[in-house]
Amino acid sequence: MVAGYPVLLVRNRKEFRALGSKCPHYGAPLSKGVLRGERLRCPWHGACFNIRTGDIEEYPALDCISCFKVTVEDGKVFITAKKKVLTLPAVTEHRQCPGLSSLVGVAALVCAETLRQEGFTGRIIMATNEKHVPYDKSKLSKVLPRNKAVSVDFQKQKVHFVDGSSQKYHQLLIATGSHSGFLKVPGAELQNVYTLQTPEESRKILELSTGKNLVIVGASFIGMEVAAFLSDKAGTISVVEREEFPYQHALGPQVGGVAMKMLQNKGVKFHMKTELCELKGKDGKVSHAFHMQTNIPNVFAAGDVVTFPVALLGGDSSSIRHQQVAEAHGHCAALNMLKRGKELHTVPYFWTTLLGKSIRYAGCGKGYTDTVVKGSLEQQKFLIFYIRDGHVTAAASLNCDPMVSLIAEVLYLGKQISKEEAE
């Protein structure tokens, strides 16, 4: 404690570092994190910080952590800090830019901030058809609110908007994100049928569900979180899912089975292996955005809209729709707009919270053929490894922090964990 405020003191080799004690993302205690060299990884969501500078080295955090002066005299460690800095939950000075004021995805946000941080002084224009402000920061450059881009003339390097206007560009980042799937069955247009996509829809779903009968289509992250949140508010909840278990493809049947039992104990009913409709066709992805650069000169893509080579899959491409990955995309795209030749280097890190308990997941388990479970699924305290070609490509846990962060750090360093080592 320094002047009554918690400070994290780290001894790295023979040097001491004093840092803010909590992760600026959601306040996780960094004392329970994973330290490798000068890199400190958050135990909850995998954000990483440099203990020397406080700068972000891995997302999803958008702010840095404070660093304080440390001196050692006569075997005693002294920390010098301004009280004002001690009271700050996070530090934005390192970012060297004022931020944004527009509902654009985190890929675009991080891209713009990185461009400014790396010294780009030209004009940055962000076009969005949304109206909400999720980031309470001053304007970074110029924002075109609720102006939807409808086409791009790549030859003339010009973007055309729905209102008839256009904008010339030197380099373009496509970070449109993705939208929830819509039911294509008779009656999907009826009253009280909603897709969760906007704050208005979220409030409406809560309003209409309170004390009423609720049906949720889909048992992956969003559907399960909605079911958990409304389990003590709705009259009844029924979840309809085409697979046998929740999170079937993301976390597998073992973790999905645990999550399903948690919600069943709260009265949620599941109708598994029940398919309402079949959707066919292209998914609208921008394929193989290597270095976040497309096959069109000066056009980049980031976030949910892309598929990209995943090192953990031996370079096979995949689409990973999550905040931390999108932020890493935006950072990589910005550096390559500045001709830095930056390759994407990140370990996907997911989390979901059900009834106050958090399931954490790191890596990419796509195509896994085996699992190794440590702990007890029944007691809801476990660590599970996902195995592909004899090696761990992902891990998930419940009540086993900071194991997933530790495994994420091992995978980030390019080290392999064999199935035998996992066992």
From TrEMBL:
Domain of life from the UniProt record: Eukaryota
Listed CDD domains: Rieske_AIFL_N (cd03478)
All copies of domain Rieske, residue ranges: 1-79
A GO-annotated cellular component: cytoplasm
GO MF annotation list: 2 iron, 2 sulfur cluster binding; metal ion binding; oxidoreductase activity, acting on NAD(P)H
Keyword set, alphabetical order: 2Fe-2S, FAD, Flavoprotein, Iron, Iron-sulfur, Metal-binding, Oxidoreductase
Keyword flag Repeat: no
UniProt family annotation: Belongs to the FAD-dependent oxidoreductase family.
Name of this chain's protein: Rieske domain-containing protein
Organism: Ficedula albicollis (Collared flycatcher)
